[in-house]
Specification:
CATH class of the largest domain: Alpha Beta
Oligomer: single chain
Distance between the termini: 56 Å
Radius of gyration: 22 Å
Number of strands: 16
CATH topology of the largest domain: Rossmann fold
CATH superfamily of the largest domain: Formyl transferase, N-terminal domain
Shape: elongated
């Protein structure tokens, strides 16, 4: 089948490799343009771009699509049977959605209609969901509202992190979209009942609010690392919390309760187990506290 693949981050890489390995003809790979990264701020291609070059596939990196008639025409000229989309990062306008004969299939990392939007993996952990999964969806103009073709489900363990859930869902999406392409399952309209949204995250989501219950802060640490991360302020520094766990304890929210980084929350307490200072490497809490003690009674920002 003649396809275009549209994706950018690591989540999309297993699907690109699976499509290539299954014998489908990939006419073009669309991904985000190279962007400055690292200490030297040199432009770096995204993960999908790098893999596409490795596989010898043609790559296109338009910065925008919505009002670009030339891009619409170029996409239509590919003569596609279908397009597969996985975390591409740009909204496809109607002319591109309608260009492939079988339309555009999206790999969405949630059990739709729950967690439509940009950050469904993070949202599932933040909410304490018992399960997540992948939905293969026929794309339409609405935000993740198209009819569903296939679903796969995975349990969210009590200590699961966003990277762990990501790594479970990415290969599932690859497997399911191949099945959808091969077998053309019937499309089922999404119900509006139970629909929720997972907005895009930002650095503004990183500060920990100690007035929240310890269980909610634990989920936040597991959901927001590695990005945007979770942080608190102390002594003019912003300290990253890389790992933590709920524990027994009580006191004014944000107060250090012992010499082993137990912090009072709005309900219960949070034991910080892995931390990082600006410009330093990550450390287990007992090593971190040797050089940066958190004295009992200190109130964290």
């Amino acid at each position: 089948m003649r396809l275009a693949f549209m994706g950018s981050p690591d989540f999309a890489v297993p699907t690109l490799r699976a499509l290539h390995g299954s014998g489908h003809e990939i006419a073009a790979v669309y991904c985000q343009p190279p962007r400055p990264a690292g200490r030297g701020q040199k432009e770096q291609p995204c993960p999908v771009h790098r893999v596409a070059l490795e596989l010898g596939l043609p790559v296109r990196t338009p910065a925008r699509l919505r009002k670009d008639a030339a891009e619409h025409a170029a996409f239509d000229a590919l003569g596609l049977e279908a397009a597969v989309v996985a975390a591409y990062g740009l909204i496809l306008p109607k002319p591109m959605l309608e260009a492939p004969r079988r339309g555009c299939l999206n790999i969405h990392a949630s059990l739709l209609p729950r967690w439509r939007g940009a950050a469904p993996i993070h949202a599932a952990i933040l909410a304490g969901d018992a399960e997540s999964g992948v939905t293969i969806m026929q794309m339409e103009e609405g935000l993740d509202t198209g009819p569903m073709l296939l679903k796969g489900t995975v349990s969210i363990g009590p200590r699961m992190t966003t990277p762990e859930l990501h790594d479970a869902l990415a290969p599932m999406g690859a497997r399911l979209v191949l099945e959808a392409l091969d077998h053309s399952p019937a499309a089922i309209p999404q119900p509006e009942a139970g629909a929720t949204y997972a907005p895009k995250l930002s650095k503004g989501d990183a500060p920990l609010d100690w007035t929240l219950p310890a269980a909610a802060l634990d989920r936040r640490v597991r959901a927001l690392n590695p990005w945007p991360g979770t942080v608190f302020a102390l002594g003019g520094e912003t300290i990253r919390v890389l790992a933590a766990e709920p524990a027994e304890g009580a006191g004014p929210p944000g107060t250090v309760l012992d010499e082993a980084a137990l912090i009072a929350c709005g309900e219960g307490a949070l034991r910080l187990t892995r931390l990082q200072r600006p410009g330093r490497g990550p450390l287990a809490a007992h090593d971190f506290l040797r050089g940066f003690p958190l004295s009992p009674g200190t109130v964290l920002g």
